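hey so i finally got around to running the thing on that chain from the lab meeting. sorry it took forever, my laptop kept dying and i had to restart like 3 times. anyway pasting the input first so we r on the same page abt which one it is
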Amino acid sequence: MLSQLKMNPDPAYQNRLLPERDNASFFDGYSVWFYKEQGDLQQANAFTLEFEIAPFGISSEGDAIFSCMDRKTSEGMAVRLTSDRKVEVILGFGGRQMVFYSIRENVDLEKWNHIFVIYRFREGWCDLVVNGVLSNRLQFGRFQKIKWPRHPIFIGKDADKDCLTPQMGVFWGWMKNIQFLSEAVSVEQAIKDSKRENSLEKVLYTPNRTRFLDDANRPQYHLIEPEKWMNEPHAPFFYNGYYHIFYQANLHAPIWDSIQWGHLASKDMVHWKDLPLALQSENGFYDELGCWSGSGLVDKDGVPRIYYTAGNNNRFPNQAVALAQPEDTEEDPLLKKWKKYSSLIKEQDIGWLGEFRDPFVWIEQDNYFMLVGTGDEHNGGGNAALYVSADGLNWESCGMLVDYDYEINQKCGHVWELPVLLPLRDDSGKIVCHIMMFCACQIEHDIVETYYFLGNWDASKKTFTKWNDRAMLLDLGHGTFTGPSGFVTPDKRSVVFTIAQGKRPFSDEYHAGWAHNGGLPLQLWWDNGLKMQPIREILSCEEKMLLERTNCGIEELNHDLEKINSNRMYVKLTTDADEIVINTESVLDASKSVQVVYDRNTKRFFARNAEGKEISRFRDSCDLVEVEGEITIEYFLDHSMIEVYLNQKKAMTLRNYVADGERKISVSSSSTNARVSSIQLWNMKSAYDYTTLAKIYKPSKIAPKTI
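ok and heres what got predicted. didnt touch it at all, straight out
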């Protein structure tokens, strides 16, 4: 009855690479689903729906298996999975709807599950058999018939949900052997026919980066998730020869939902290796709402730890600090498996109730210190709660870290997220001061930015004395550079990771299959002021020098630049001109150009689009940048990412989306007879090894096998 299934008709997904396995079809959690015109369901009274599924995960609002349902009129039937792994059956009799769930047996993730829904209208009940167990029975009046709507049948998607919404209900995993029989088989027969198969190997759903190789906007040498959703990278630390970084992940779909901890490892903080999820939320556990951001370190005993925010709406306040450690560092040197502590290590005792997240933990003077982002009820703004501990498990409150005037810092928001405190060293390695970074949250009529205070941190007194009354911006890209995390490397560099926010409509990210990426790892230090630049390891992605010139005029330089097309560039330019403009332009669409400008006379460092509209951030004089001597620009283009660094004083992170994969740059200046002292332009290569990825993905549009 369910033969001739058709795939999601959206043309954006028609060339999607899908894996195959033993006549099973793969559903990617958001774009892959099938449908069929209803046919003769109107005559279906007594029937059996049978299917086999191996889900990898379930979204927060549940996912559909079979749906021919109109919930407004209470007509039809739907079979779904709930977030706590129950099978949900919805029956619509026309104006009346009944719902029941599996009780005695639920589905397992990463295993094959065999499910029967058996409807008996003469007897007046519906049986649900899950993995050979009669899991529940719904009773109703005898001879009650389902009233079927004139809707198509959907497999793997709710019939009445638009997929371009945050909770779309699309199944994620394998599915096979879907049968709709026009008879009600006996429970005994269903139990007899039930099959259980071994667990699927995780490699079968390892995300495959190769599907994005033709994406003109997806960065290739930036830190980026293998697919779907990513927000802030966090918890960096170095252990056993590897840098580890984690990130907020949703492997189900390119949306914020069911947040877990993704995990990457690298020898150099540039070339990352994908690892399994480090943390997953668990129903009925203290983190059932999500495993949110935190930090990582190697403890006093030399064992890695990750501290994270445990979300749980069944607890108030709903945010607390949790802890996990590797299961076995000797047998698992890449730290693929983590074990959570059985209980929370710190519940909220200060700040705005319900705002208590993103612990940042470090060791100093034989103590553990922890910052937690929250709101400060005393001044109305955000702040970081400070704690101290001898063992990193039992914490003593030290109050709020920063004493500041919220009236002149209202752009910093009512809540701080992702607080980070790092030392700033000079060339000799001496700590001159500390930088206190945070991400502003809950701001009236503004967007999220990353701000900082400079000051003196005294571990003995547990105090931070700020130097600047107004919080400063690290980056002027207007909300692209957010979500800081950081650590001190073994060679004593203070390095910051950030999330580079997407700047396009949700529907574009949904169709693309990925959202957001990390910014370039940023080194911070002190040299008569705060200095910053991407870590020098990023230059390992230099592939070929395309241009090198010294002491040349603007016209002469542009003549050479006109010959260069690339979507991945690194440019270093110096000039003694009073103004310099770098223009990035799509080869096929000049309207997508963006200009980055520094004007020495006005001290403005800003960006504008093709229409001349400023797209960067400028509050007032506090965002001016003074450059004496030559202007030095470091410019990084990586598909939709543009990062620009001005004399190691200020950064600007931008998004620039294009339809093609070719860009040109040019240089201009309003300064009379402006010349470029030197310029080097490199083509950059990808930081990811595509040759060793899983080879199970191949073109397919095969619908689930049916009888």
